[in-house]
Structures
1.
Amino acid sequence: MSPSLKAKIAQVFDEPGCDKNQAKGAKEKKKGCTKQLSPGAAAGGCAFDGAKIALQPIVDVAHLVHGPIACEGNSWDNRHSASSGSQLYRTGFTTDINELDVIYGGEKRLFKSVREIIEKYDPPAVFVYQTCVTALIGDDIEAVCKRASEKFGKPVIPVNSPGFAGPKNLGNKLGGESVLDYVIGTREPEYTTPYDINIIGEYNLVGELWQTKPLLDALGVRVLSCISGDGHYNEIASSHRAKVNMMVCSKSMINIATRMEQRWGIPYFEGSFYGISDMSETLRNIARLLVRQGAPEDLIARTERLVEVEEARAWKRIATYRERLAGKRALLITGGVKSWSVVSALQEAGIEVVGTSIKKSTKEDKEKIKEIMGDDAHMIDDMTPRQMYAMLRDAKADIMLSGGRSQFVALKARMPWLDINQERYYPYGGYEGMVELVHQVDRALSNPVWQQVRIPAPWGDDGESLGAVTAGTPVPAPAPIPPQAPQPAALADCAPLPGLAFLADVARSAMGLTLDEMPA
């Protein structure tokens, strides 16, 4: 591991916004929060994957992976992050290094790849991602990116996060560090307003940002930049002039919020776009902080009027669903901000949450879970699929909400399942998203397939599962199959196979047709 990467990881582990680091001494902080991954042990994502996930939603830049083509193939478009404009972020770029590059080095190939991208696509910037192989052979991507920036007059941003550096969450933060070091503060916005905010840790999954942005527009609040969903390079580069930062997922990019507060004095808070009450509280927090930063005081009153109208409209639209979902029980297997924000949304729909995971949750997330569910809240730190299956059975849950990797546990338990993580196809943010979430839960629970799959299988012992025979009744032996007549040797002498004439008669009889009336 290069000295620069070691220093950057140490800086990330010294994050003041992390409750685990606050409880450690200097020696423990140097060890880091988790053990480094060994090759082949990157289950759940590696540091490279985390950095790529965090930054790829920046839509107008080219994302170049310096490594084998499999690294780009496995990380390409693995989140349904939507764009309102450029689609360049969905184009996969890789240096595709080979055995000779491993021997002689891949820096020249990287430089040529950057030049080809700039000549063909002319993006505002190029992000270059380090991978395990190129880090092990010693390719200095910082030096190559610096030289390419000077040569081509375009920002070429190194993202030094090889997979072996640690897990996916560390990669999220290393990607954020690259944005802090090379992007934020490098440009000035065309103009500023007292209502400018940044949204950090929001990835615009299936367009969730677009469900909340009209609410902010109605209040006159401008999203100066979103880091990184539907993000644009120039907006992120000038994001240091915002008045307030909203942190959506503190587990992934808390370092950006804390560093921006240290460097430019921008206060931040953590909010949620999920659920009616949490969406309203987020709007109120934005208004209060903007007024504290110098915005006109009437913003608070206008926010309350908007909240009143939108809440009444949302409650009215989910009233029918609440009647059908009252008393249903759900198991929530997710993490981060969704570990408490989705709990609140489900409770508003009349659903009881029997347990929620806290694998990727911060101390503040856990406190909010206790506040919402009570001190006896069943919080799940980590569990095997077998334990998850047992909990579904013991808690008598009616539905499970989780990511794609856990869906087969629910399916094996013949339990309705709804995708709540990054692979989902429906947006659940804002008041509109709350209605959609309740609608999808209702659809999953009402699907008639669950009545069918819970019927005992027809191939039970002695037919008992269908009641075909009484238990203990001996099953008669099958009748012997009569020997078939020998087949003629010549094809012209072949007679119809035994049984075909009978099947033809049955078909004609069922259709009520004679032989002459049968279709050709």
2.
Amino acid sequence: MNLRNKQHGVVGVAVGGREREHVPANIPEWDVENNAFWESIGKRVATRNLWISIPALLCGFAVWGMWGIITVQMLNLGFPFSKEELFTLTAIAGISGATMRIPSSFFIRLAGGRNVIFLTTAMLLAPAIGTGIVLQHPEWPLWTFQVMALWSGVGGGNFASSMSNISTFFPKRLQGTALGLNAGLGNFGVTTMQVVIPLVMTIGMLGSFGGESMTLVKDSGWILGKITAGTQTYIQNAGFAWVLSLVPLAVLAWFGMNNLKPISPDADRTVASFAKITYLYTLAFLPAIFMLYLYLPAPTGLGVLNMWVAIPLDIITALLVMKLAAFGTMKENVAKQFAIFKNKHTWSLTALYIVTFGSFIGFSMALPLSITIIFGDSHVLDPASGVWTHTKNPNAPSAFTYAWIGPFVGAAVRPIGGWISDKVGGSIVTQIISAVMVAASAYAGWIMMQAFHSATPEVYFTQFIVTFIVLFAATGIGNGSTFRTVGVIFDRVQAGPVLGWTSAVAAYGAFIAPVVIGDQIKAGSPENALYGFAAFYAVCLFVNWWFYLRKNAYIKNP
């Protein structure tokens, strides 16, 4: 079997042949379910695309999630914003990234994997550089930081296109492992960011080009422990550091990845493909900005919407904008991919993926600032007035020292979840981890309640961090198992858009978790946030059993 392209010449080899011929950027044939094709051509090409995709996705996660760490350091540096305002920065980045995933889930068919990964990786340079600039100006208004947080959402959007792309390169029997590697190692962007940012903030990394240092007014830290107040720090490096990896990665994506013509028929029209990506991403910003304006309190917005109204409104508006604004062949392709919404399994798997990835990214965003607030202060009740006072805790653990551990574990076990699910079936794995998450989140809520009402909250910290490590491990395994189930239920044409869509909705966890936990901390009852999450996990436990495990399930898996 030869792989040929009339415009580009021979790009494959005959089955059993030893020579390796050039593979063009736009591959005309792709039949990886044919074992002969897979062994002679497909495996080599798919593996190369996977190993370039992973670090690009990692940097996307890092840029998207960096506000969870930046806000902690802004608090340590005495930036003139309240804790509630700082929580809005992580929430804005979260909802922007989630909204960007909606058009991103359709990019591969419209524009081709190589084109998409190259351009969306290069796009991350703008929020990385912009964030480095605004962080040098604590006197600037809040909205300038909010704009950068919004722009960072491009990194969150990249996940949907990356997963959709990799799903097309591998045969179904290997999709669980391949998607687990792409997502799991890509998710290391959260951990990498949480380790790298505290480190690069300790040095003048770019010399005179990187700006002046600032003085900590509160204790900070890094992976090896505390950094005391009075130390000089370079918070702007939190953005600038990613430029050093984004530039070579964009070059590598352009010269090393491929478009699959059977999946993306118009991918060889490079300029038109870039225009489609830019156009749809620009459109996606509009509903996010509009919704945030209605949701955020003054002076940033009107504050007239509840979060649970704002999120569905944002999703519906983004879909409508994309569908109505599409034109030409793009309109036809978008309409074809909207067919996934007629399948009930799209909706059941969306709920299950919220349990796994939604929890992973939500806890990753909210955990650093939660550690700082809950364990950073001593909480003392005045018996006379019944009012709680919160003063600096001299024994407080540093969020920078511990917050990375949970995301690290969650990302590390994700490939294991995909591998196990390839062996025993995705739904049974999802069922087990959902039960674990019900118990662990309820216990985490109880620990948070104890710590937030204690003069020595640090005595509860070990239990707190261990419980969250269990939660992150469960989300990581469940990420792999849920994506494996998508590969079993949907054909190759629909699997990519479904993977993108489920990841888009689940990404709203990056908005929900910081807002819910932040609001409940402000109300003095952080435990209620975790109890609410436990209740949701219990509902999804039933959904998974009903759809895929009961005797007369719609699709037995296994």
3.
Amino acid sequence: MMMRRLAISLAICCPILCTNTLTAQDNTDTTAPANSTVTTPVKDTPLAVEVVPEVKEKTQLEDLAKAYAYDSLWMVELQKSHAYFDEMYAEVTTMNYDSIFSVELPTDTLKARLAKLNAKTPFNVEYNPTLEQVIHSFLKRKRGLIHRMITASQFYFPLFEQELDNHNIPLEMKYLAIVESALNPKARSRVGATGLWQFMFSTGKMYGLDVSSYVDERSDPIFSTQAAGKYLGKLYDIFGDWDLALAAYNSGPGNVNKAIRRSGGYTNYWNLRPHLPRETAGYVPAFLATMYLFEYANEHGIVGNKAERPYFVTDTVHVKNAISFDHISKVVDISVDELRTLNPSYKLDIIPKVEGKTYTLRLPRKHIGIFVSNEAAIYALAKDELAKKEKALPQLVTAEDRVRYKVRSGDYLGKIAERYGVGVSQIKRWNGLRSNNLKVGQRLTIYPRKPIASTSTKSVVTKENVPSKPVKMPSDPSKVHVVQSGDSLWTISKQYPGITIDDLRKWNGLSNNNLKPGTKLRLCNCSS
């Protein structure tokens, strides 16, 4: 019932989704746009074919076709925007703030514009040379990225503004999702932060986001934005300053408190900045630079593709039985890619059935009638199809709040961290470790990000990883790594900044994480 009220509220207040949650009894769509042609499904007939009423006015048909074309174009824009998370993440974490970027932006003009922004926002947007360099860098090197974010923001920002307003958070905080994820709900950082607002597992769980082997609500645009509003509100309650709340959102309240102490008690972000972690030192300036570029995009000639209709017309329906995206795609005539875009929280393209949980499926309005009118037949077919699968579906396993791990022979912190999807520094902090040394039999407390299989799951003996086919090594020895005893893909990726585990797998044709000492790995997507 709560989910139904939530969706209806968004239909009234948030044009991004224009949605109400349907149940099996809600067979009639009563909220179709006034200028659209409404289709009426034949009822009580399994998998009925839609019957379109006679169209009396030609303009109605043209309007409907145009509306569907807009939806299709929006889907393409959103799927394209999902590719830019790595670019934004690298910009925030690796920028050299001492570099000089020459652009057509006089300092006096920038000072005047920042003063106007500072007057209308609770953030501290006063001019300083560091912020000027970040803005120049974005203008010089990231104009294309900002253009694409302005385009994609037309879909996400109405939702963000609604939820931020509900939690009394400054609406400018919507720009944080650009810095965090480049508006990609499936974005995942190297330390496991996930979604539009980049929640770690433990923080997401603290604010009610469900994570299991099937579902990750950190990727759900509505749930994650609600959680972000609650978390940011709590951080502001602690520090009484939105700049410090931003810094704490990135690095944690503890690091901000340490910076305050190390600075001698200052509470202005720019005075604390030298004492914050490097990523956080670049994080708030990147946020303020993004805010500036969105507010003054026209002055810099950065104009996104204007959406003729800045939202999808969609509905949600409560799902009563397990069903796969493949099956929905077949019976409702919608692509799996579109289902993934509209339902990003389902990790395995399967909507599960879990006792005590309610999961929803979001579909374009033109598809929802077929699904709702034929639910019983669809579920029956889905059950038969899933039963025919030779391979059993993954067991639903929810990540635990905490595990106690006993160190075994051959263990090291990197190996344990990779297994549980956490960072080495986190394990050290949770257990008060001052070095990376471990003792066999030592007990560690870990708050896992990855779901851990139950003890009833049969163990599988994995072979050492070898490339699926011979890989040609580059002639430059600096682009080759020879695997040593104790190496893992995780430890190797940490030795070479900018290279990820997925890069190593792709460049070397690897199918798992096990490595044989002496194996040579390519460190680039090259052959010479």
